[in-house]
């Protein structure tokens, strides 16, 4: 069989620990035998980030801007223990944070569904994708304990030093708490564009919800910006595709999501997204079956797994013990990126290959062959057979070859 040819390289961001091991196994078993894989390789593994003073992370994000599509392996975000373990000269920042800041992107998380592992919410038939605005609000707030009686005010002074607004927040008669938070129009606009863009890409409805009835300026601004951008830039395309943009109050959204059958994107403000993404991913089953894609407002894509480097399994692997780490989300990061590359470059064979590889993976699990993390969730008729990561990938390969 002839290998599929690529024209533009994918930006490949390698990572750490167990996922780095899976990364190579996926390439060897499922990609390199079938594709003349063209990538521009960036090693985001912690030792090389240290060696390059984290420049490699910045370079990989710049390359993503240039080529438009990246695939990323999970990476360690250093903490004090990692500084010790890897003898780091600095506690380097989270690569995901750095890349997100450079691409000004929004993260979309979606579960991979298989028959035999059902969501806790029985009426969920299709994936629910959560888009979290990962900027500002309570995550960039200023707050303190109020020690005792006194007046708290909200003051805005413009660039020239002129006081524009002064409002009493509360006349404290006793101690309490106080918090100031903000967001920026530019960031909300980028968030909105990324959401509309991704809804078009995936041909799914977009839901957005805030508490604008209570927060008449702050949350209402989010609502207004979304509506204006939708009307002026995206409405026509949505109509053509037969998809919808739907705004509602956050409490109403929560109730509708639970009653829905899924199959849409739910855009959330930062805090709502933080909380709801954990709720939704847990209800769908497993973090190991959750994909994640960073989409910039101008349509650049970085695909990855939602989970981390699975450190506990890696330490077992280093001791020579057999590991059964689930490679599905990392594999779907690859298929997502290859499909997008194929679409952008008009290479239908690449798109078809990505589809077939995903199908082969899902069918392998549905036939009862899976990694051990899924065995406990399995409700299928055939008994589940828990296998190690490499045997699982080989089983997928066998199925894939039957379809090529
Ligand atoms: P984690 O790597 O997601 O793993 C937490 C636990 O979840 C694992 O110990 C395992 O449970 C289970 N798990 C996650 N992915 C799995 C998979 N593919 N197959 C089977 N089980 C899976 O989170 P962590 O241990 O908190 O973090 C480890 C490192 O990852 C940290 O250094 C963190 O900085 C980094 N991290 C990176 C990213 C990223 O790059 N996007 C995201 C999150 C965390 P059992 O042990 O019970 O089997
Ligand atoms: Mg959270």
Describe this entry's structure for a reader.
The radius of gyration is 23 Å and the shape is globular. The chain has helices at 17-31, 46-51, 55-67, 80-85, 95-103, 185-202, 218-241, 250-259, 270-284, 311-318, 328-345, 348-366, 372-375, 389-403, and strands at 4-5, 10-14, 35-36, 39-43, 69-72, 106-111, 128-132, 142-146, 150-157, 163-172, 176-180, 205-210, 245-249, 264-268, 290-295, 301-305, 369-371, 385-387. The protein contains 14 helices and 18 strands. The chain has a ten-stranded mixed sheet, with helices on both faces. A two-stranded parallel sheet has the order 1-3. Helix 12 (348-366) crosses helix 14. The chain is an alpha/beta fold and 404 residues long. The mean pLDDT is 96. Helix 7 (218-241) links the parallel strand 12 and strand 13 (245-249). The longest helix is centred in the middle third of the chain and has 24 residues, at 218-241.
């Amino acid at each position: 069989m002839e290998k599929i040819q690529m024209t533009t390289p994918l930006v490949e961001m390698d990572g750490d620990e167990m996922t780095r091991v899976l990364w190579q196994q996926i390439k060897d078993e499922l990609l390199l035998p079938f594709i003349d894989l063209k990538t521009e390789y960036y090693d985001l593994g912690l030792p090389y980030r240290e060696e390059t003073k984290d420049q490699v992370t910045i370079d990989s994000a710049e390359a993503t801007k240039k080529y438009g599509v990246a695939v990323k392996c999970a990476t360690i975000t250093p903490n004090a223990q990692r500084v010790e373990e890897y003898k780091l000269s600095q506690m380097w920042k989270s690569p995901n944070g750095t890349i997100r800041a450079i691409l000004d992107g929004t993260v979309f998380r979606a579960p991979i569904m298989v028959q035999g592992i059902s969501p806790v919410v029985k009426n969920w038939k299709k994936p629910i994708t959560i888009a979290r605005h990962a900027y500002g609000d309570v995550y960039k707030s200023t707050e303190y304990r109020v020690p005792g009686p006194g007046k708290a005010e909200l003051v805005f002074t413009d660039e020239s030093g002129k006081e524009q607004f002064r409002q009493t927040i509360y006349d404290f008669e006793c101690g309490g708490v106080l918090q100031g938070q903000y967001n920026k129009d530019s960031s909300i606009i980028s968030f909105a564009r990324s959401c509309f863009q991704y809804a078009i890409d995936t041909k799914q409805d977009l839901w957005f919800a805030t508490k604008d009835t209570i927060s008449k300026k702050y949350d209402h601004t989010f609502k207004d910006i979304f509506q204006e951008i939708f009307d002026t830039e995206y409405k026509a395309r949505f109509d053509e595709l037969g998809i919808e943009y739907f705004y509602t109050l956050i409490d109403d959204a929560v109730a509708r999501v639970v009653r829905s059958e899924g199959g849409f994107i739910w855009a959330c403000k930062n805090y709502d997204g933080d909380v709801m993404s954990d709720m939704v991913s847990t209800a769908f089953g497993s973090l190991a079956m959750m994909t994640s894609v960073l989409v910039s407002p101008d349509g650049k894509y970085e695909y990855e797994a939602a989970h981390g480097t699975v450190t506990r399994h890696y330490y077992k692997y280093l001791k020579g013990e057999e590991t059964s780490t689930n490679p599905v989300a990392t594999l779907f990061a690859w298929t997502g990126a290859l499909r997008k590359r194929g679409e952008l470059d008009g290479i239908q064979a690449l798109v078809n290959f990505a589809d077939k590889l995903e199908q082969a993976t899902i069918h392998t699990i549905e036939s009862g062959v899976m990694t051990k993390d899924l065995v406990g969730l399995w409700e299928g008729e055939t008994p589940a057979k828990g296998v190690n990561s490499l045997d699982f990938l080989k089983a997928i390969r066998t199925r894939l070859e039957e379809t090529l």
